[in-house]
Design a protein that fits this description.
The chain is of the alpha/beta class. It has 30 helices and eleven strands.
């Protein structure tokens, strides 16, 4: 980032509308990474304020106050305290929920007392009106001493005014010079004064935080000792100081609420969200509705994606047909058709399903229902050693295990967090979707019950539920193995129900599709090209000897040329590097019902599960260089004895293997980062692979 860029830190309480505002201001001009040194999401975006300068908006993790407890709260805290060496904010844009203003003003008042430039964006104004809450914005602005702007990012209301205020503020305000929200200096006058001798730019309130948390700031050893001595000399008590501060702040906030906010009688009729919760959180109906929601999710993934998937499949068949008939028969055309095009078809065909899955999950989050799923699941989660907060990472695992495992940092209890990390990869992520789809289409008929229940969708849902059930069983076993004793609490704020932000849903679907195509695509295409080489060439003169053998046979029997050419392709593949590798591991996987080509796919997909389809596309394209689709090639695949490869038992065994196996290097890497040890990712890889082998063996032997 250029030093001339403006940097705005976006902060606020969880569920205050911060993400909506970030998406509304930045659109698709955003990037996702990690904060330096910690596995916490860092979303940054570019905002056009019309002032001719590049303005960067940094979305900091949601937090309730300047007293952090979790890793993500520490990230926000250090940026606001100016203690992050990599991120310096010129201005703070604080999002506050108008329908819950009292709680939001605590965090707001703390930032104001840090004496840094602040603009308050007041969201949820429509909800506040429905609740009968009336806020005097101008009066609130005077009380706080900072600009207050009413916005509705869902409907793009107030954004132009907010940008104008931000543009003026970044030009004219060098610091927050207003009086303190509360009398901070009175809490520890001598200690504050001594800290400010060493840090003259600190406000009274920031000095208090240096006394409380200086160990977490980038200070040299001498300065750490100096501040420690100031604490001792002045008998500074952090706990008492924090308690006094909170009491004072809420006293002042109560006055502001009385002067500037009109609220209805709290005994009035319950709000719509409360009425809906009576049904959706009911101990019987709530669970039935949850099951129905998940059922519709998996039916939709199949039903809605069918047409675009067929369209993409048709396009690649036509491309392959055209290339096969117009390119010369040379090595590079073979690489293009059987390496690049085959790999791309295996990648892009499943993008519609992935977009639909992410879209539906985003809708569940936006409407507020995802938090209810956590609440409903808490009792069951506790029985297996987890808690309700474990549900969010596990459900996120349906999309991708990497961010899901990172989101487990919100679980305060160390044992429950570790168990969540260890079982989350058992949830069927979007990378498994292409594998499930191709295998289900091979052995399960496209049949509908009652005109709308897809048999293929039911099987798909069964695979997802199997992952959930196995995660719960494994967690129950591991809770007796992991010896961490720590008391657990489950405190969850239920957001109000709202209509989904369709712009946000669209942005998420596009972004996730891009991530899949670019990140997974790089792996798939590299492995597809490598596989083409390994399946086209072999050691010594083995390939040349096979060619010479069949040249003689074709010359002797020209009438059988077509059959002999097909046999030639098959024998060339068996004598290639890939064929030799597959044949070597075939004895170990034959009891599961797999052939040597599936064995190659199992090895290549250790890098990433979605590589399976690309691997099969490349192998069968090299062996059968024709214009039939991958599904047709797999459908007609046979063992050497003439029996079908993809029978119902073999396909089900393979599906079970992919449900349970740990085949994702990225997941193992993030588990290592989160647990700060190689012990747990190695354990995770071994237990998941062993479990996958045993369960697949059991399924094949039962169904054959």
């Amino acid at each position: 980032m250029s030093n001339n860029d403006l940097h705005i830190a976006l902060v606020g309480n969880p569920n205050s509308g911060k993400t909506s505002l970030f998406n509304a201001l930045t659109g698709l001009n955003q990037k996702v990474g990690n904060f330096p040194g910690v596995t916490v999401d860092k979303k940054t975006g570019t905002v056009d304020l019309g002032n001719g300068k590049q303005t960067k908006l940094i979305d900091l993790p949601g937090t309730y106050s300047l007293y952090p407890r979790r890793a993500d709260e520490w990230v926000a805290y250090k940026v606001l305290m100016g203690a992050d060496p990599d991120i310096k904010a010129d201005l703070v844009l604080l999002v506050a929920d108008a329908s819950n203003l009292k709680r939001n003003l605590l965090f707001c008042s703390q930032i104001i007392d840090l004496k840094i430039p602040v603009v308050v964006a007041l969201t949820m104004n429509d909800l506040a009106e429905k609740k009968g809450i009336i806020i005097d914005t101008k009066g609130l602005e005077i009380e706080l001493g900072v600009p207050v702007v009413l916005i509705n990012p869902r409907k793009n209301k107030g954004l132009a005014e907010l940008k104008t205020v931000l543009s003026k503020y970044t030009h004219t305000v060098l610091g927050n010079t207003n009086s303190d929200f509360i009398e901070n200096k009175k809490m520890a006058p001598a200690a504050i004064q001594q800290v400010q001798k060493h840090f003259p730019a600190l406000s009274d309130y920031a000095s208090i935080h240096y006394l409380i948390n200086h160990e977490n700031f980038p200070l040299d050893d001498q300065m750490q000792d100096t501040i420690e001595q100031i604490e001792i000399d002045n008998q500074f008590n952090p706990t008492k100081t924090q308690a006094d501060e909170i009491v004072q702040r809420y006293g002042r906030i109560r006055q502001i609420m009385q002067n500037q906010v009109e609220e209805p009688d709290p005994l009035e009729q319950k709000h719509f969200s409360d009425k809906l919760d009576d049904i959706l959180l009911h101990k019987v109906w709530g669970h039935l509705i949850l099951f129905a929601v998940l059922f519709l999710l998996f039916q939709s993934v199949f039903w809605l994606a069918q047409f675009p998937m067929d369209g993409i499949d048709w396009c690649f068949k036509e491309i392959s047909f055209w290339l096969n008939h117009h390119l010369p028969e040379v090595w590079w055309s073979n690489l293009l058709v059987n390496g690049f095009v085959a790999g791309m078809s295996g990648l892009l065909k499943f993008v519609p399903q992935i977009m639909i899955l992410f879209g539906i999950i985003t809708i569940l989050e936006d409407t507020g229902y995802m938090a209810r799923i956590s609440f409903l699941s808490d009792r069951l989660m506790r029985k297996v050693g987890l808690n309700g907060k474990s549900v969010m990472p596990m459900i996120s695992g349906f999309a991708c295990a990497v961010p899901a495992i990172m989101s487990a940092r919100n679980i305060e209890n160390k044992k429950e967090r570790l168990l969540t990390i260890l079982v989350t990869p058992l949830m069927s992520c979007s990378a498994r979707l292409p594998v499930y789809t191709i295998l289900i289409s091979l052995v399960v008929t496209n049949k509908y019950y009652f005109g709308f229940l897809s048999l293929q969708g039911l099987v798909m849902m069964g695979l997802y539920l199997l992952g959930v059930v196995m995660a719960l069983i494994v967690s129950y076993v591991l809770k007796w193995v992991v010896k961490i004793q720590e008391k657990s609490f489950f405190i969850l704020e239920l957001p109000i129900y709202r209509s989904p932000r369709w712009t946000n849903v669209g942005i998420t679907m596009i972004e996730k599709a891009k991530i899949f195509v670019i990140d997974a695509g790089k792996i798939i295409m590299i492995i597809s090209m490598l596989l083409w080489f390994l399946s086209s060439y072999g050691p010594g003169n083995r390939i040349e000897n096979v060619k010479a053998k069949y040249a003689v046979l074709i010359q002797q029997n020209p009438a059988a040329k077509q059959i002999l050419t097909k046999q030639l392709s098959s024998e060339k593949l068996q004598n290639s590097y890939a064929g030799i590798l597959g044949k070597a591991i075939e004895p170990a996987i034959r009891p599961l019902g797999y052939d040597w080509k599936i064995g190659i796919a199992l090895i290549t997909s250790i890098a990433a599960r979605e590589v399976f389809v690309g691997t099969m596309a490349t192998l069968y394209s090299v062996e059968e260089n024709d214009d039939t689709s991958l599904q047709q090639k797999l459908q007609s695949a046979k063992h050497e004895d003439g029996t079908k490869v993809y029978t119902l038992p073999a396909a089900f065994s393979l599906m079970i293997f992919y449900v349970l196996a740990m085949q994702c290097m990225s997941t193992l890497a993030v588990v290592k980062r989160e647990t700060k040890s190689w012990k747990w990712p190695i354990f995770q890889f071994l237990y998941m692979t062993g479990l996958a082998y045993l369960m697949s063996l059991l399924v094949y032997q039962i169904f054959r």
